[in-house]
Design brief:
By secondary structure, the chain is an alpha/beta fold. The protein has four helices and eight strands. The radius of gyration is 23 Å and the shape is globular. Bound molecules: copper (II) ion (CU).
Amino acid sequence: MNIGRISAVLAAVSLLWFAHAGQAAASDAPKEHVVKVVSDLDNFRMYFSPKHLEIRPGDTVTWVNEASIDHNVMTYPDGFPAGAEGFESPFLSTAGEIWSHRFTTEGTYEYHCLPHLIMGMHGTVVVGAPSKNSDFHQPSAKEVAAYRDRLLEYFDQEDIEKFSRSSDAGGQGANHAADTAGGDRSSHASSHQ
Ligand SMILES: [Cu+2]
């Protein structure tokens, strides 16, 4: 081995060492995480991937729509920690369209895509320590009513009743079913089937 090669090897070793030291420092820096918004039309599936993310306060999550199909990202009315804010993206309607949210408050965030809620299109982001049951936001009657109105933009009252009956053996959905309809299926409905 000549002197030139030895110094090249030494240079490479010291570069690796610096890269490693740099990584250790960077692990404390805020990170960006990507969630794919997947439309698997062949199998009638719409889903977020990964479905579950564990991040640190200050990190950002970016959702990337993989197809030119409308999806959104929004927390359930009781799906975020008390003291934190829920979130709602605009509709991502083209392939490659993205939406980002930076999480500052610790806890568990449960979100879904509103028009594909019934297909089980939902996900979770845990920021730092997960929330205990008693730590979740308690939605006001006004917030619950606003969410109900949002659902009625995409589904018939009848669809929602069927869904709540089949997903809740306890029959809690039947109580909601007794309420009168507040809205009609909007013009959006056909494009979100
Ligand atoms: Cu969707």
